Amino acid sequence: MMKRNLLFTLGACLFGLMMTITPVSAQQLPISTHYTFNRYTLDPAFAGAYDNAAVFLNYRRDWGNIEGSPQTFRINGFGQVYQNMYIGGEILADNTDIFNRIKANLNYTYRLQMANSQFLSFALGGSFYQSIIRFDQVNADLDDPLLKDLDRITGSNFNANFGLIYNWNHFHLGFGLPVLFRSKDTYNKGADAKFTFDRSFLIHVSNRFRLADLWQLQAFGVYQKTDNQPSVVDISATAFYDDKYHIGLMYRSSNALVFGVGGELLEGFVIGYSYEMGFGGVYNGSGGAHEITVGYRITTKNLTHFYDARSSRKKYPTPSRPVKPGPKPVEFNRR
Fold first, then answer.
1. Cβ proximity of 233 and 222 under 8 Å
2. Nearest by Cα to 118 from 163, 83, 169, 164
3. Each residue of 91-102: pLDDT tens digit?
4. Which of 21, 34, 87, 310 gets the most CB atoms within 10 Å of its CB?
5. The CATH number of 2-315 is which of 1.20.910.10, 2.40.160.40, 2.40.50.140, 2.30.30.40?
């Protein structure tokens, strides 16, 4: 069974990789590689899969050697409100040179138990976006009619998101729409404008496998597509040790490799760091990307945290040595 699940997961990941060979050029929303241990960042339908509540702080800096390169700050989390119902959200600030964007998101998640160890999770949410272009920071002729008396352009948008995940033990297969609607493409001179949002969707598949008493391996594949933009595919493998530490490697279809490490410092407190380096194009001399996440998780379930070594020891106990039978008692024939 384990071998069959491993082949199925790896096959799904390879299929996603073959769906695109075009390098990524730009993203309308910032990306993250830390969904390998903070799955809520990828899809809010993951709420409640392993924890009753969790909160995470994240910082990412792309192309550190380039002035004005993208920087992203985010905080997200969720909590159980009633039985299989969860409320969560995210606040995000993304800054790239003169362009700034703020996102505030609220999600509702419901986990439906279909059978023993099988669940179907639904997530529906809404987001508010505030986008700003700072013309006062443009290195240009301020007497230009397009820039004169214009300090900045701001715009606000509302959008929705949806997620659906099937879960069987440690296997997850999900489909999501991070941006459900396409906004209008209009820009107005003055203080207000509308910024375009293209519809996007994602497909993800993951599974975890017990390698030894203290070791587990997680395989993760993600396919993301935004209208009018190239596809993005992530393939990753992460090893977990003793329910506390993890180390992983990820390949991104934009010709990038990601190396990540992390672990649980105290009971419930986790930290993760990753470094992303690319090959060719803008990656040359860019300094790569650094990302760090700290978080706290609460669980009262008959489940473990994301790290599952202890449950493996319970699920696969070491067989006890059989006791050899002793000599049969001597029977006396009483006459």
1. yes
2. 169
3. 999 998 888 999
4. 34
5. 2.40.160.40
What is the spatial distance between Cα 63 and Cα 65, in angstroms, rounded to a whole number?
A: 6
- Considering Cα of 75, then 291, then 307, then 209, what sign does the dihedral take? positive
Amino acid at 293: T
Residue with tokens 């009753």: 52
Task: Name the average pLDDT for the chain.
Answer: 80
246-274 pLDDT, tens digit each: 999 999 998 899 999 999 988 889 999 99
Higher pLDDT, 312 or 77: 77
Q: How confident is the model at residue 300 (pLDDT cuts 50, 70, 90)?
A: low
Contact 42, 265 (CB under 8 A): no
Task: Give the pLDDT confidence of 114-154 residue by residue, as tens digits.
Answer: 998 899 999 999 999 998 888 777 776 666 666 666 677 88
Give residue 286's pLDDT.
Answer: 73
Q: Rounded to 5, what percent of the chain is helix, strand, coil?
A: 10, 50, 40
Answer whether 290's CB lies under 8 Å from 270's CB: no
Angle 182-183-184 from CA coordinates, rounded to 5°: 125
Instruction: Give all strands (DSSP E) within the chain, no chain letters.
Output: 53-61, 71-82, 85-96, 99-115, 118-134, 152-168, 171-179, 200-210, 215-226, 232-241, 245-252, 256-266, 269-278, 289-298
Quote the distance between the C-alpha of residue 225 and its chain's center.
Answer: 15
| Cβ atoms 277, 283 nearer than 8 A | yes
What is the four-CA torsion angle of 136, 139, 144, 145, rounded to 10 degrees? -40
Q: What is the rounded CA–CA span in Å between residue 68 and residue 213?
A: 47
Tally: H helices and E strands in the chain: 2, 14
Query: pTM for the whole thing?
Result: 0.78
